[in-house]
TrEMBL record:
A GO molecular-function descriptor: oxidoreductase activity, acting on paired donors, with incorporation or reduction of molecular oxygen
PROSITE patterns associated with the record: CYTOCHROME_P450
Organism: Saccharopolyspora terrae
Subcellular location(s) per record: Cytoplasm
Alphabetic keyword roster: Cytoplasm, Heme, Iron, Metal-binding, Monooxygenase, Oxidoreductase
Pfam families named among the record's database cross-references: p450
Lineage: Bacteria, Bacillati, Actinomycetota, Actinomycetes, Pseudonocardiales
Protein name: Cytochrome P450
Length: 408
């Protein structure tokens, strides 16, 4: 990065995510950056400042009410979908509480635990397919395992059964997280995604099933008002995209590190380390989302060390920078699942804390344990891993390994 350039234009390719995060951290707790379309924002890198802003009622996620620049955005602004959808992700105050209350019952601890056997069956089926590959031939575990697992789980939860639609949804969500796609690609992709989810809602309305989409169609909030059609579609799109992108990246980073540093895997097998510890440290060390747009200051907010975010200015959460910030964790770049403090902000903080965090952790625990039990001699077949073209999503393009079953 160019250390003297301010505001700093974020690299849309994400090719140097970690170096960029470190450089931005060195500028102070928050620094001015430029997003695609020449939109300026504050990127917050200090974990304590970020945690404070996450919990501050003077910070909103509703661009319609609290971002004056929103009305001037062109329709093809590459990040438009990140702020335009009407769901709990882009809402504030009472409106956020209303929308979140409709979703929260599907993610209680009891209901998530009840999904365990279903996730295990999906995991076993995918590992059977991996095992069917030719012996000693490298398999892309991202494409064959880490990606289809959470997609199968969230699609089952939402009642999406059409295979062709599901494959297209998955492809378009990857486009949604890309920050190198052209405006034309983004607009066309989102039009198709809205059409597909609209068709899914219509199908569930005609033939309700035992799934969250059907539940939401029937559910009413305390005032007796239903979700609008737009809110319902945007909510389903949020759950589908967030419900698998973060878990794909979490699995990919954990698998890659365990293959690169097998001593951690040996510690797990010796009972010296838990899968939960590996998962939490992976979330800290490689947050699935490197930078999360956008929040907006409702009023003037002073920053520690000088400077201030003025009312109406947008804010980006620098999760990768915050989780590794050298002022708060001297060895933050080191993956150490045995460390006492694996605290992180990868699932957020405050009222917008990720409602699906328990599900992501459960999927990771089941998937990682089953993968390395099934293939105890799994061997890395990758060199330098390729970063997905995004400054938002922190994941790999592919992840090749050789699955050697026991006895071969």
């Amino acid at each position: 990065m160019e250390p003297s350039k301010c505001p700093y234009p974020l690299d849309p390719t994400g090719s140097e995510l970690h170096a960029e995060a470190a450089g931005l951290s060195a500028r102070g707790p928050a620094t001015r950056v430029v997003l695609p379309g020449e939109v300026e924002a504050w990127l917050v890198t200090d974990p304590e400042v970020l945690r404070s802003l996450f919990a501050d009622p003077r910070v909103s996620k509703d661009p319609h009410r609290h971002w004056p620049g929103y009305r001037d955005l062109p329709a093809d602004w590459p990040l438009h979908t990140w702020v335009s959808m009407r769901n709990m992700f882009n809402s504030h105050g009472a409106e956020h509480r209303r929308l979140r209350a409709l979703i929260a019952p599907a993610f209680t601890t009891r209901r998530i635990r009840g999904l365990g056997p279903h996730i295990e069956r999906i995991t076993d089926r995918l590992l059977d397919e991996v095992a069917s590959a030719r012996p000693r031939v490298a398999v892309d575990l991202r494409a064959r395992f880490a990606n289809p697992l959470p997609v199968a789980v969230i699609s089952s939860l939402l009642g999406i059964t059409d295979r062709d639609s599901l494959d297209e949804m998955r492809r378009l969500v990857e486009l949604f997280f890309s920050t190198t796609a052209t405006p034309e690609q983004v607009v066309a992709g989102m039009e198709t995604l809205y059409r597909l989810f609209g068709e899914h809602v219509a199908s569930c309305r005609r033939n309700p099933g035992d799934d969250l989409t059907s539940d939401l169609l029937a559910m009413q909030d305390e005032d007796g008002s239903r979700l609008s059609d737009g809110e319902l579609t945007d909510t389903l799109m949020l759950m589908f995209s967030a419900g698998h992108e973060t878990t794909v990246n979490l699995l990919g980073h954990a698998i890659a590190e365990l293959l690169t540093e097998p001593r951690h895997l040996a510690a797990i097998r010796a009972g010296e380390l838990s899968w939960d510890a590996v998962i939490e440290e992976t979330l800290r060390w490689q947050p699935p989302l490197a930078n999360l747009p956008l929040r907006f200051a409702i009023e003037y907010i002073e920053l520690p060390g000088g400077g201030a975010i003025r009312a109406g200015e947008p804010i980006v959460a620098g999760l990768l920078a915050a989780n590794r910030h050298p002022a708060h964790r001297a060895d933050g770049d080191l993956f150490d699942p045995a460390r006492a403090d694996t605290a992180h902000l990868s699932f957020g903080h405050g009222v917008h804390f990720c409602v699906g965090s328990q599900l992501a952790r459960l999927e990771a625990r089941i998937a990682l344990s089953a993968l390395f039990d099934r293939f105890p001699r799994l061997t890395a077949a990758f060199g330098e891993l390729r970063q997905r073209p995004s400054f938002i999503s922190n994941g790999h393009v592919d992840l090749f390994a050789i699955p050697v079953p026991e006895g071969i």
